[in-house]
Amino acid sequence: MNETDFYLPLSEYSFERKFDERGAIQWMQANWSKSFLFSAMYAALVFGGQHYMRPRPKMNLRRPLILWSLSLAVFSIIGALRTGSYMLHILSSSGFRQSICDQSFYNGPVSKFWAYAFVLSKAPELGDTAFIVLRKQKLLFLHWYHHITVLLYSWYSYKDMVAGGGWFMTMNYAVHALMYSYYAARAAGLRVPRPFAVLITSAQIGQMGMGLTVSWLVYRWMHQGGCPSRLDNITWAALMYLSYLVLFSNFFYQTYLRRQDHSKTAKTE
Q1: pTM above 0.85, yes or no
Q2: Residue 147 annotated to the active site
C-alpha cells in the first residue's frame, strides 16, 4: 500500500475543510453551562410528560420514530467512519499513547467537524425520550440518566480539548450506529434476531470498560507530561463510566440472563 492509498480515507470534504473549529471551541467555552439548562428542561418535560400522559391513551408514532431513528443511525454511521478513519491514522502513525493524548482530534482534518457535531448532537438526542413518554413505554433510570450525563460531560470536556476525547467520541459514534440502526429496524416492524440486541448491549459494556481504561491512562500519563487534562475532568469521566458500566451490566443481566434463567425454570416445572 503506497502513501496515497494510506491517506485516501482522510481526504476532506469541503464542509469539513471549511469548518471553523476555533469559533466552535470559543462558543462552547462561553456557552457550555447551557447544558445544565437543557438538562433541567429535559427532566421537567420527561416527568411532566409522563404525568400528562397517565390518563391518556398511548400514541403510535411509528413513522416519526422510524425517521428519527434512521436519521440518527445515518448520522452515527457517517460519524463513526470519519472519526474512526482519523483514529486509525493516529494509531498506525503515532501509536496507542498518542491516540489518547493527542489533542489534534479537536482540530485535525476530517475529525474537527465530527467532534463538534458529536457534542452538539447530545442535545437533540434527548428527543429519544419523547417517544418513550408519548408511547407510554417503561422509562428506565439508565435511559434518562445516561442522556443527561453524556450531554453535560461532552460539553464540559469539548471546551478544554481534553485528552481521550477521540476515543470517547469514536466509540460512542460506533455504538450508536448499531443502536439506532436496531431501533429503526424494530420501528419499521422488521424482526431483528435476539443476538443483535445482545451484541449492542455487550458493545455498550465494552465501551464503558474502555472509557474507564482511557480515563486511567490519561491520569497516569498526565503527570508524565504530554497528555493534557485536568484532575476534575478525569474524576468526572471515571465516575460517569463506572456508573454506566454498573448500570449496563445490570441491564444485561436482567434482560438477557435472568429472563433466560426464569424461562429454564418454568420449563423444568
Answers
A1: yes
A2: no
